[in-house]
Amino acid sequence: MTMVYKRPQKGFTLVEIIVVIAIIGLILPAMFSIVFTLLRLQIQISQLQRLKEVGDFVTNQMTYTIRTNAHKVDETCLSEAEFSLSLAGASESVMFRDRSDNCFGYYIKDNQLASISAVLNAPSYSQVLISNSDTDFPVTVNSEDSSLEKIETRLAKIKLSLSTIPRVSYLPTQTLTYQLFTYLRN
Amino acid sequence: MIKSPVLNNHGFSLIEVLVFVSVFTVAIVALVASVSYSALSLNDARHRLMSSRYNEELAEWLKFQREYRLFGYSGLLAKSTPTGTTYCFNNSNIGLDANAIMTSGECTGFDLDDFYKRELTLTSATDEQINVQIVTSYRLLNQTKLVTIELSLYDYGL
């Protein structure tokens, strides 16, 4: 009797393939979730860093301008006609008068921080310092947690609560608070 | 002569299995180590950033105090000693407290934002100069991390 030589089967069985796919199916999502968590943390820190850059720059600029130019904290500036349009609807504002009797100040409106100034009897000039519609890096000023306040004729208090506006929903909002006094030496 | 078919065993040898398991273990350990190191570094970077913000806040408050309460008399000079006096500033609202009372002594806990500790050391150098050291610290994996800034405050002679 002649025996038929059977070629050895060289493939994997169905069970082996299912087991391998199941293991890969467990490992891959775990690895992706780790990478995603790290990426998320990295983005949060870079957002916080940029928020601090914006906050540092704006508060430095404000304190420098106030200390070098302001003669007194003057709320009567608020009633001057040239400011009424810009300041209408502002949740917080603080105004200063310089030695030339011109007014300048800062206000929070629509969750944005802006500076305002005017030479006597001329139209006022307003500039947004922190914008929530900035195309590069939008930052919102939390109106309910921020204040611009006169304490004394030579003392003003500034509290700014700044938050990032995440471009994607899975990123949490980053918030930094700046609180400082400016005392006028002039 | 009848030839018996040779059974082809397709399993792995012990050496192959050992090599695979060791390579796999090394790879997994390296991956986990690098991931946990990255997470730790990122966390540390975040706390460093917050600590430097707290330091700057207190430095700004001290500059304000120099002008508001004047330098000498009951001001900062009176709060400093040649060997250095330490104050605890774990109050997160210090920036808005113009008349905060400074009581000497080191911080007892990490109470600032429930995570940080902020201490100030005032050292009088001359009658017109104070050396300031602000240290904000935090604990991460049983290690205490410090973020320090140093500055000198001079009397404006107001």
Describe this protein with a few key phrases.
heterodimer; A: 186 residues; alpha+beta; 5-stranded antiparallel sheet; 4-stranded antiparallel sheet; 9 strands; 34% helix; B: 158 residues; 1 helix; 35% helix; 25% strand; rod-shaped
Report a brief summary of the structure.
The complex is a heterodimer of chains A (186) and B (158). Chain A has 186 residues and is of the alpha+beta class.
| Quaternary structure of the protein | heterodimer
Q: Give helix % range of chain A.
A: 25-40%
Number of domains as seen in the coordinates of chain B: 1
Q: In which order are the strands of the major sheet of chain B placed?
A: 1-2-3-4
Structural class of chain B: alpha+beta
Number of helices of chain A: 2
Distance between the termini of chain B: 119 Å
Largest sheet of chain B: 4 strands, antiparallel
Shape of chain B: rod-shaped
Distance between the termini of chain A: 119 Å
Q: Please write the string of helix (H) and strand (E) elements of chain B.
A: HEEEE
The strand count of chain B comes to 4
Low-confidence stretches of chain A: none
The largest sheet of chain A, given as strand count, sense and whether it forms a barrel, is: 5 strands, antiparallel
Protein name (chain B): Type II secretion system protein GspI C-terminal domain-containing protein
Pfam families (chain B): N_methyl (PF07963)
Transmembrane segments (chain B): 12-40
Keywords (chain B): Membrane, Transmembrane, Transmembrane helix
What does the model show?
The complex is a heterodimer of chains A (186) and B (158). Chain A has two helices and nine strands. Chain A is an alpha+beta fold. Chain A has one domain (17-183). In chain A, the strands form two sheets. A five-stranded antiparallel sheet of chain A has the order 1-2-3-4-5, with helices on both faces. In chain A, strands 6, 7, 8 and 9 form a four-stranded antiparallel sheet that branches. In chain A, a hairpin with a 6-residue loop joins strand 4 and strand 5 (125-130). The model of chain A has no long low-confidence stretch (mean pLDDT 87). Chain B is of the alpha+beta class and 158 residues long. Chain B has one domain (14-154). Helices cover 35% and strands 25% of the residues of chain B. Chain B has a four-stranded antiparallel sheet with strand order 1-2-3-4. In chain B, strand 3 (129-140) and strand 4 (143-154) form a beta hairpin. The termini of chain B are far apart. Classes of the chains: A alpha+beta (186), B alpha+beta (158).
